[in-house]
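Private note to self, pasted from the team thread so I don't lose it. Backbone tokens:
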């Protein structure tokens, strides 16, 4: 608790923020001499215009008789003098310290133990730009930023209803990061909302610097190679998920919003499917599904056929492949494995390098290395084609790149050992694994046996039939369950 002596209170906060040169103590006095005070704030975290025009200037020019303030100067300043969006009486040191660090200003007046905490947040932030990881061809060009207030505003502008709820929490013992749970009341199941809030509340962690920290605590399978928590940096995508009955979580300082439940088929769905003619969207979705199969299976099937089941290949193709391998010192499995590793190295290099040279390095590197390797007879031309096909098709499904790498190398390894039998066993194991996953107690592969989902998962339906095809899945608390 603070005392009534202004100098003692100032000394306390100077000790509390010692060795911090960004903290500012601004002393001032009114013209009438009735008000002597000090404003405490952090430079760079506040709006200087609010500090100067709305707080200090009105108090300095204050000239009022004591009878007008009813012996309560703090209330008079709050109601009649200071102009700010939010002004609160505070005396708790923990609350004061936390809010000062987060951009608010503390007003201390001589003779009063209570203080005024004034909302003055005004730090610099990145402007709204196009999404970096989710390329937009048609639809909204806005993307989330690191400022959580801006992110919440972009969602609210798309769902204009009082049923849209934002529940605020603080996570992280040290960082005290603001986290908002966002849902549509009456649409999102209460059991799902309660479960997410309970998991976030029970998080024991010192710092939250990115939404991925929260994802690891929310996921039913944190070590799974498949994502069971969705993520997007597009406000229109998150708004659509909320309207379907899902729950979104926004973390301060992160330009992505996560949501759940997230099902397997959503890897092949992008929001632009619903902005285009549904026939063309259906074709594009089929292409994505085929790309997933090709990227994960082509290397494994190629090795199985070349190494174990040559009789399954047409004679002309087998002779062509055998001729291209003339003089290659490595077995087919090893050369394909090394080439796929090289492709992933180039992909990672292109991702991490600056934009102006990253793309050029990855393309030029692939062309030069591929042709040089074939010319030097280190690898055969068919292996280069297979590796390039697997790598390029994986880029179509950006949300599955990481899981595809694990699947591709896993199937390749078991096929190199057991041939087509190994590939079949690998696919069976992968299917069984997927059927065992859950996302917030909802089966990951629900779309297989849910009639309302399968039509939108594979063959997108016309918009007039889409209104409730996903929403009903999350209505467990209403007793509807899942269509069998």
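Design output:
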């Amino acid at each position: 608790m603070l005392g009534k002596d202004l100098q003692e209170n100032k000394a306390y906060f100077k000790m509390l923020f010692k060795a911090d040169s960004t903290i500012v103590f601004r002393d001032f006095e009114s013209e009438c001499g009735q008000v002597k005070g000090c404003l405490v704030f952090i430079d760079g975290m506040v709006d200087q215009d609010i500090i100067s025009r709305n707080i200090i200037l009105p108090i300095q020019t204050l000239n009022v008789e004591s009878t007008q303030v009813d012996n309560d100067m703090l209330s008079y300043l709050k109601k009649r003098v200071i102009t700010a969006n939010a002004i609160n009486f505070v005396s708790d040191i923990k609350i004061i310290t936390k809010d000062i660090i987060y951009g608010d200003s503390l007003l201390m007046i001589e003779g009063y133990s209570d203080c005024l905490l004034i909302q003055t947040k005004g730090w610099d932030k990145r402007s709204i730009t196009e999404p970096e990881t989710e390329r937009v061809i048609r639809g909204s060009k806005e993307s989330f930023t690191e400022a959580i207030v801006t992110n919440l505003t972009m969602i609210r502008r798309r769902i204009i209803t009082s049923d849209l709820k934002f529940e605020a929490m603080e996570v992280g013992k040290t960082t005290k990061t603001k986290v908002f749970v966002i849902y549509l009341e009456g649409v999102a199941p209460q059991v799902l909302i309660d479960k997410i809030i309970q998991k976030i509340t029970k998080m024991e962690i010192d710092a939250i610097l990115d939404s991925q920290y929260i994802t690891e605590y929310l996921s039913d399978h944190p070590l799974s190679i498949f994502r069971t928590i969705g993520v997007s940096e597009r406000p229109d995508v998150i708004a659509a998920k909320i309207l379907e009955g899902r729950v979104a979580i926004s973390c301060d300082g992160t330009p992505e919003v996560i949501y759940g439940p997230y099902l397997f088929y959503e890897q092949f769905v992008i929001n632009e499917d619903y902005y285009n003619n549904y026939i063309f969207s259906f074709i594009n979705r089929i292409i994505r599904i085929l790309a997933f199969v090709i990227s994960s299976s082509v290397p494994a099937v190629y090795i199985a056929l070349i190494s174990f089941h040559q009789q399954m290949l047409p004679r002309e193709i087998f002779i062509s492949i055998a001729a291209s391998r003339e003089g290659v010192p490595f077995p087919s499995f090893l050369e394909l494995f090394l080439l796929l590793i090289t492709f992933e190295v180039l992909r990672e290099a292109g991702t991490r390098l600056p934009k102006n040279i990253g793309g050029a390095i990855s393309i030029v590197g692939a062309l030069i290395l591929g042709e040089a390797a074939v010319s030097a007879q280190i690898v055969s031309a068919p292996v280069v084609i297979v590796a390039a096909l697997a790598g390029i098709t994986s880029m179509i499904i950006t949300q599955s790149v990481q899981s595809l790498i694990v699947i591709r190398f896993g199937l390749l390894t078991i096929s190199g050992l057991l041939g087509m039998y190994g590939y079949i066993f690998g696919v069976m194991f992968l299917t069984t694994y997927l059927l065992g996953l859950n996302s917030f107690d909802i089966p990951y592969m629900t779309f297989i046996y849910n009639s309302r989902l399968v039509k939108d998962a594979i063959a997108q339906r016309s918009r007039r039939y889409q209104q409730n095809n996903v929403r009903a899945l999350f209505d467990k608390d209403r007793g509807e369950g899942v269509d069998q």
